[in-house]
Amino acid sequence: MIWGDTVAYWARWQGGRTAIRFGERDLTWAELSDRASSLAAGLADLGVAHGDRVGLLMSNRPEFIETVIACARLGAIVCPFNLRFTAPELAFVVGNADCIVVVTESALRPGLSLALERAPHLAVVDADDGSFERLAGAGRTASPVAVSPDDPFFICYTSGTTGDPKGAVLTHRSWFYASMVRALQGGINLNDRILLPFPMAFTGGLALSLVAMWSGAQLVLEPAFDPARALHLIESQRITVFMAVPTIFQQMSLHPNFASTDISSIRCASSGGATVPVPLLRTYLERGITMTQTYTLTEVSASGITLPYHQALERVGSCGVPAMHSEARIVDENGNEVPPGTVGEIAIRGPEVMIGYWRNPEATAATLRNGWCHTGDLGTMDADGYFYVVDRAKDMLISGGLNVYPAEIERQLAGIDGVLELAVIGVPDDKWGETPAVIAVAQSGTTITAEMVLERCVGQLADFKLPRYLVVRPEPLPRNMSGKVLKADLRRQYADLPSTASPIR
Question: Which structural domain range is residue 457 located in?
Answer without folding.
Answer: 396-500
